[in-house]
Predict the structure.
Amino acid sequence: MKLTLTIAFISLLLSVNAQTTINGNVTDPSGIPIPGANVYLEGTYDGGSTAENGSFSFNSSETGEQTLLISFLSFETYTLVADVATMKDLKIMLREDVNSLGSVVLNAGTFSAGDNSKAAVLSPMDIVTTAGAAGDYIGAFQTLPGTSNVAEDGRLFVRGGEANEANIYIDGLRVFQPFTATTNNIPTRGRFSPFLFKGTNFSTGGYSAEYGDALSSVLSLNTIDEPDQEKTDLSIINVGLGVGNTQKWKKNSISVNAFYLNLKPYQEIISQRVDWIKPYESLSGETVYRHAFKKGLLKVYGGLNYTDFNLIQEDINVAEGVNFALKNRNTYLNTSYKGSLGNDWDIATGTSFANDYNDIKIEDTDVNGEENSFHFKLKLRKRFSNRFKLNFGAEQFVNTFSEKAEVPDFGTFRSTFDNNSTAAFTEANVFFNKKFAMQIGVRGVHNTLLDYTKISPRASLAYKTSPKSQISLAYGDFYQAPQQEILKYDETLEPEKSSHYILNYLYQNDKRTFRAEGYYKSYDDLIKYNTNTPEFNSLYTNEGEGYAAGLDIFWRDNKSIKNLEYWVSYSYLDTKRNYKNFPTKATPNFAAKHNLSLVTKYWIEDWKSLVSGTYNFASGRPYNDPNQSVFQNQKAKAFNSLNFSWAYLLSQQKILYFSVSNVLGFDNVFNYQYASTPNIDGNFARRTIRPNADRFFIVGFFWTISDNKTDNQLDNL
Amino acid sequence: MRAIIILLTFLTIGSINAQSSYEKGMGKAFELWGNKKSDEAINLFERIAKAEKDNWLPYYYAAQIHITTTFGSKDAEAIESRLKKAQDYLNEAKTLSKENAEILIMEALLNTAYVAYKPSEYAMTLSPKVEQLYRKVKVLEPKNPRGILYHAEWKMGSARFFGNDPKAFCPEVEKAILYFENESHDTPFYPQWGKNEVKRVQKNCKG
């Protein structure tokens, strides 16, 4: 009996310690062995690493069904559930993790600037330390290829498109009036301050089905998720004063900033070509509140802006000039929520609202306009695997516009419209492998004002040609409703349409980036009218059309010269269109054939200084001379500007800043205005449209106050 | 009766075995690390972490090896994938042990590694974060020698960058030395490293 027991125990002991050997081989998809992979039975200590030849072998006392896991950097974790006894001579192929560095990216048409994007060519820092941008968030994008230099306007002109063909989004929601109110030939600026944003996506074409109502471009800005610390920022510059503060508590944070701008003292010292009665004055404030939920993040962004100015505009037809006065009040609210719903479902939703009020006085004519705009968006994303993701969503736009114009001797004119549209979109993102990816989507939109429904397909493909290079393709159809100035007189039109065809080559190698993008863009159904400017009795049609074709080159090198970063952008643009009141197809005034930008940033360690220089060149822009028989066949002279800025770190948190645009004082000409009637000799007289001043100087002092003494505002300059 | 005794003995042996397999595993992992078999050590730490389920230490060490491996490396792809993996490990560790000074110190080192790898891109964005992490460590464990030492080294680096005297932070290093002397923990394998780094940091205090 005793003996039997002992034997029983011994056999029990043996069975407990009985070892099974698990072995096999691990390779990548092309059959090359993977050394150093981690192979183990889940929840046990039993496992090992693969050898140089990819083989592994280890013993385990586990029995029955177990889970074998194999993991390795930049590969997907492999799982095998089976009886331990069968885990012999395994041939295991690991799939590459398509989320890892070195994977192909769908980037045709896009410039990303952000911390996480693999295709990022600019960092958020770059955007704001560019000389000539003068802290304007939009200014820096004008040094990227695909944009045209239209310095008298200040907005983004992309690939032969008008400025209003580009839309701007904050946290996925539309910004309705992204630029400060201004008038002809006084350049505008972005309304928002750069330091609230972290990531940016600038698409010069072929963008995702998520975005609509833009023929040329989408610029999408994301606000900071979580500020690093509490701080106060003070800025004192020669044209204004700014203050900002950030507070953090528990799961919340709030950033507030305000800026007062007054050009009067400046313009009293530096002479201007414009006769200002009341120089530009504006007060703006922004707030971002963030709250982190367990599985998501809520952000509320609010911006207020008040602008006031009064000037005499030169006019060839009016000897004494035209008096123009403007008061603008703009309120913008944006609430967004991003989070996870579990089970690989994500949600992004939000609303934005804008109220824009203009009080304009042109000589004796009074124009009061008010516009209310609302955007709601809901987007869901399901991640089926790393290799297949599906996005879909819907959005609603509500826009009401009303305007009252009082013209002495003629009476009062009122115009109003409600422009509402509903859109739905879906997009699939497929990675066939680490080298080959595709995104395909479709967008449908219905507009109730003009009563149209349009479906637009979007597609892009990317293929990695070598570890450092890739090619990508994009195609898409884009529709955009006519602008406010047309809609207030005609509500029977069709939307304008463009189609983009893009081929992109990207080479990235250790701090050097080369990007070349060729494109062809067709325009259809452009709005035409038979008067000089849109009027209530003009005849409107959709009979306009046009094209734009070109090549954009970008080269960036942060490596060759120590402490020097630079990038070069070159754009070649061939475009013609027949729209507005054009008698024939012609190249519009805003489109220069050649655009070149060179941006340099040099850090001088001994001087604690960041010195930056930007050179912009644009070949002469076309204009129409009514003394000539051919429409729009003249060219203004080429545009040149060399901008310079110098940031000196007085101490870690105090910066002295100096910048000057057009250092060399090039005498630039944008366009000419011709008289509407010929003089006694039968010639049309003209006046030159030039910058308001050849140079612009900024001198500023920036001070950051925080417990943590390392932060400063260098990244805002 | 005897059978019961034998059975009990077996059970005890069994539980002792279980106890020691953690210690054996951790010991083995440290041995691999010591023998410069870093990736095998990481793999073993990861296996232990997955088997233990509620112990943050193996994740912590797996992250540490990834981070220290990137110092001095030039391979951008390797650096980025290692630092990303290290952050994953630290995130796991944080879910198992909240408000843990040691994990925050490691996270500060991880961000320092990013700054060292690409200062032009990361110095401006991550420096405030590193500073914030060390500040939090000082609140949680004012006498943590690693927190004091590495914070001092970090501040010396930025002082040098701005042309100030890094020696201003040497008294902090002295403090760290003192705290290293007094350091003791009951938990096996609790972080106690760093003493050997004092000499390197002290180089800033000479001359």
Observations:
- Chain A has two domains: 19-93, 110-716.
- Chain A touches chain B through 43 residues (CB under 8 Å).
